[in-house]
Write a structure and sequence with these properties.
This is Acyl-CoA dehydrogenase family protein. By secondary structure, the chain is of the alpha+beta class. It has eleven helices and twelve strands. Helix 1 packs parallel to helix 4 and helix 9 runs antiparallel to helix 10.
Length: 388
């Protein structure tokens, strides 16, 4: 008798039947629409974003933790489980849902006007409109307070100038939530991507997150009406709160890549024979599998604890940093370790492990590098900011 990794501590017993049912639905969608195609998408560096978004929308995945406007209003834990299942398929699938719901939709939902919410959120929840989130710039990643993008008044209008880089969904997006510096501080704007002066260029030659659409946004004196400004978004705290939403999903999502890698390694080790027996019977292989399973369990319990706190309304940003730092770091270590169990076959697209490991290199970096999260935790422990 064998035990699957997340059955080791019977973590399903910690969930409600509703949570497990949501997980089962998302797992089925991933099995039907991601797994059969993702190796080809990854190899080609192309993904059918709109088709995927509509399939995800059919089961309420887009903005699923938001309320109203056609959103599912699911719990934070249910959303986390969905992120885990999506990233077990591929980090790109989870990124699509995360950027759409936790960044673009959340920003409009939390900071937008009633008109902006009515215009965009129902269409985005249905997968009929794709959103992106323009914060990172070519020269300003970990230090968004130094952003170069500017918004200036011209009568009642705004004129936006600058550029954003590494923006998921940008090449296919219908709306971008763009953050810019104004004379009054940082402000957010809902920018239709067909506005004159807006250009989106796809980033090619990626070696990671290839089943995801990534782009650069160029803003060349883009004229927007006053109504494009997100009225409740004032200061850097606004975009950072959106990042906290998205980082929470990553805490769970990274575990999906780790779980899929470990499942693959277990299955492979049980059937691959060397020296007359399955390699699962060798002590060194079992040590690798056991270490990976233990770290996966610990990461899961951490994610679940953070999810319960989120549902209670008491989750703090530095706690999300703990989860993002630990779970992505450990998921990457698990994927790398599992790759060694597959030997030479580990680098083949026939197996998902190398793809997960490569994707997690990006997940380690985006939405706060490990170094930034270490400093967030350090500031919480000492009361001293060490960012500069």
């Amino acid at each position: 008798m064998t035990t699957r990794p997340l059955d080791l501590l019977d973590v399903d017993a910690l969930h409600s039947q509703e949570e497990l049912a949501i997980r089962a639905v998302v797992r089925r969608v991933v099995d039907d629409h991601v797994r059969p195609n993702v190796a080809e998408w990854y190899e080609q560096g192309q993904v059918p974003v709109r088709d995927l978004a509509r399939e995800f929308a059919k089961v309420g995945l887009l903005g699923m933790h938001l309320h109203g406007y056609g959103c599912a209003g699911a719990s934070a834990v249910a959303y986390g489980l969905a992120c885990l299942e999506l990233e077990a398929g591929d980090s790109g699938a989870r990124s699509l849902v995360s950027v759409q719901g936790s960044l673009a939709m959340f920003a409009i939902w939390k900071f937008g006007s009633d008109e902006q919410k009515d215009e965009w959120l129902p269409r985005m929840a249905a997968g009929d409109a794709i959103g992106c989130f323009g914060l990172t710039e070519p020269d300003h990643g970990s230090d968004p307070a130094s952003m170069s993008t500017r918004a200036r008044r011209d009568g009642s209008d705004w004129i936006l100038s600058g550029g954003k880089m590494w923006i998921t969904n940008a090449p296919v997006a219908d709306v971008a939530v763009v953050w810019a510096r104004t004379e009054d501080g940082i402000s957010g704007f809902a920018v239709p991507m067909d506005t004159p002066g807006v250009t989106a260029r796809e980033v090619h030659h990626k070696l990671s997150l290839r089943a995801s659409c990534t782009g650069e946004i160029v803003l060349d004196d883009v004229r927007l009406p006053a109504s494009a400004q997100l009225p409740a978004a004032r200061g850097l705290k606004a975009p950072l709160s959106c990042l906290t939403e998205a980082r929470y999903g990553i805490v769970w999502g990274a575990l999906g890549a780790a779980r899929d890698s470990l499942h693959t390694a277990l299955d492979y080790a049980g059937t691959r024979e060397q020296f007359g027996r399955p390699i699962a019977g060798f002590q060194l292989t079992q040590a690798k599998l056991a270490d990976a399973a233990v770290e996966l369990q610990k990461g899961y319990l951490l994610a679940l604890h953070l999810g319960r706190r989120a549902d209670q309304g008491v989750l703090r940003p530095e706690q999300v940093s703990v989860g993002k730092l630990n779970n992505v770091r450990e998921a990457l270590a698990i994927a790398r370790q599992c790759r060694t169990i597959l030997g030479a076959n580990g680098i083949s697209a026939e197996y998902p492990v190398m793809r997960h490991a490569a994707n997690l290199e990006t997940v380690l970096t985006y939405e706060g590098t490990s170094e930034i999260h270490l400093l967030v935790i350090g500031q919480a422990l000492t009361g001293i900011a060490a960012f500069s």
